[in-house]
Amino acid sequence: MEKKFKRTTVTSALPYANGPVHIGHLAGVYVPADIYVRYLRLKKEDVIFIGGSDEHGVPITIRAKKEGITPQDVVDRYHTLIKKSFEEFGISFNVYSRTTSKTHHDTASEFFRKLYDKEEFIEKTSMQYYDEEAKTFLADRYITGECPHCHAEGAYGDQCEKCGTSLSPTDLINPKSAISGSQPVMRETKHWYLPLDKHEEWLRQWILEDHKEWRPNVYGQCKSWLDMGLQPRAVSRDLDWGIPVPVEGAEGKVLYVWFDAPIGYISNTKELLPDTWEKWWKDPETRLVHFIGKDNIVFHCIVFPAMLKAEGSYILPDNVPSNEFLNLEGDKISTSRNWAVWLHEYLVDFPGKQDVLRYVLTANAPETKDNDFTWKDFQARNNNELVAVYGNFVNRALQLTKKYFDSVVPAAGELNEYDRETLKEFADVKAEVEKLLDVFKFRDAQKEAMNLARIGNKYLADTEPWKLAKTDMDRVATILHISLQLVANLAIAFEPFLPFSSEKLRKMLNMDSFDWAELGHTDLLPAGHQLGTPELLFEKIEDDVIQAQVDKLLATKKANEAATYKANPIKPTIAFEEFEKLDIRVGTVLECEAVPKMKKLLKFKIADGLENRTIVSGIAQHYKPEELVGKQVLFIANLAPRQFKNGLVSEGMILSAENYDGSLAVTSLLKEVKPGSEVK
């Protein structure tokens, strides 16, 4: 029998404060978490939604060093940006705090100290790279070198960005310190470890036997880790940015960010409810639900529960609904490569369209497998679903009521069979949506809500009240009465998914209050109820708006290619005599024109100092003919003539350089010389 809880604590993964939030974060964590919390609130259940910024760790110190500012400056900037973006996007946290707060420092220190005093940690010494110039131990990200797999330079001590292989610092060829550039040495250092192997037996029972209802991706990843056997995991590291390890002899060591970050859920709850926070974390009648991305499954299902169990007074998570990853235009989202749709930029580029992104990310949610976001799909879902289905039905129902009944809800007359069938179709919507939301199937639940709009659209199209208005106003009144009840239901059904649009629709309907329990009712708007002014609920997004976003991504892709450019290897060595066989000369372009029906070719008339010659070159996609007239170019003069299908004969080859992006640049001279001059 399913356990009934008195209250629910919902947490969402703490975004890392070294960059803004992107659509991958939203689809994976924050939109589903917000839908769930709004749903529970609508049902009048006791729930809190905990969020905050994760502000410690090496990447923040690296960014600070790169920008010449302090780590605190970095996290202040991004915490403010992230918090503001979430607020504007409608992510309805009860609290959004940060791990640099005093409350968090105190809470994390106390948590560590309690486990330390209970002897829940083990101490181990290990060899680690040390920078003798900077006088500091080096975190994995502060060590760079040649990747042993793809031999790319600049691979980090934990991963090669070029080939994606996970690495250990000792794997690198010619390791260097990212701080001083010197070659690091190995030194002994002491750290504290959480012995996960000690917790393996109860974790195996708790996850594999007691929580078979967890999503397959979550259950499967946990089982894989458990089957491999759990190993002790360091809870401290040598770093000067973070929460100092609160024991004697631990100078220069801080809590590992994976240990300190999840405690942020607890400290943020303390900030919100300083007097009653414990019931949300320690009462067995509280349900704890973590919303995370798949890269956080092990931390929230194995590591954090082991920490909570070791402490002894906390509840464990009841469910951890983790999504897979969202890709962007067929490529993995990457902060370092700027390959992302950033939330703060979206809010500027698409003002008032928070719900469009919420809808698309939910409709395309990576609940069971990685999914792909494309701007064309974004446009199609807005125009073909939100505008053409939901918005169209609402607008027609309200405009027709305004036209025929001065925006007053008409009374229904006698219902025919089709009316009764239509009413029956949406009577069960509450049970269907709840059944799906209760098991975290947000994509299907939203689809069920959209089906209501499809029912309404079909009902109006089939009954055609605008045609009946000339002969049977009683029938028109009945049709619009039923349509308006459907519209009112849509305002409730979409509230967890599209809160901004639901609020706008309620204003149009003049619905001051509404109750989730009323969803599916057919008497939400009584006869005689005065409606508000109808407006368009959604608007079409034009091609040029979408193209601007696609162009922005293409520019990013080009910039990435330029940044990672590496020249092709040098071809095999040839003898000088081989080179001398080539007769490379300077020619002046007298005429240049496109070749009909051959879009890649340009036809040149070249002055070569002798008799002039015709050369055909495949550079038409890189130059306009008039750009090249009068220019001096280099060409191979003694190449055998080449005949094309159209009869044209090319008497040489113009030399061009191919750039990293495939574009061609004709070679030219720094100063003018006589046509026919030889290149030596």
Automatic annotation (TrEMBL):
Named cofactor requirement(s): Zn(2+)
EC supergroup of this enzyme: ligase
EC id: 6.1.1.10
Cofactor note: Binds 1 zinc ion per subunit.
Motif ('HIGH' region): 15-25
Reactions that this protein is recorded to catalyse: tRNA(Met) + L-methionine + ATP = L-methionyl-tRNA(Met) + AMP + diphosphate
GO molecular function list: ATP binding; metal ion binding; methionine-tRNA ligase activity; tRNA binding
GO cellular component: cytosol
UniProt binding sites for ATP: T335
Sequence ranges assigned to domain TRNA-binding in this UniProt record: 578-680
One GO-annotated biological process of the protein: methionyl-tRNA aminoacylation
Binding site for Zn(2+): C147, C150, C160, C163
Principal localisation: cytoplasm
Keywords: Aminoacyl-tRNA synthetase, ATP-binding, Cytoplasm, Ligase, Metal-binding, Nucleotide-binding, Protein biosynthesis, RNA-binding, tRNA-binding, Zinc
Subcellular location: Cytoplasm
UniProt cross-references to InterPro entries, sorted A to Z: aa-tRNA-synth_I_CS, Anticodon_Met, Met-tRNA-synth_bsu_C, Met-tRNA_ligase_1, Met-tRNA_synth, Methionyl/Leucyl_tRNA_Synth, MetRS_core, MetRS_Zn
Motif ('KMSKS' region): 332-336
Function, in words: Is required not only for elongation of protein synthesis but also for the initiation of all mRNA translation through initiator tRNA(fMet) aminoacylation.
Alphabetized PANTHER family for the sequence: METHIONINE--TRNA LIGASE, METHIONINE--TRNA LIGASE, CYTOPLASMIC
Assembly behavior: Homodimer.
Family the entry assigns: Belongs to the class-I aminoacyl-tRNA synthetase family. MetG type 1 subfamily.
Name the UniProt record assigns to this protein: Methionine--tRNA ligase
The species this protein was found in: Bacteroides muris
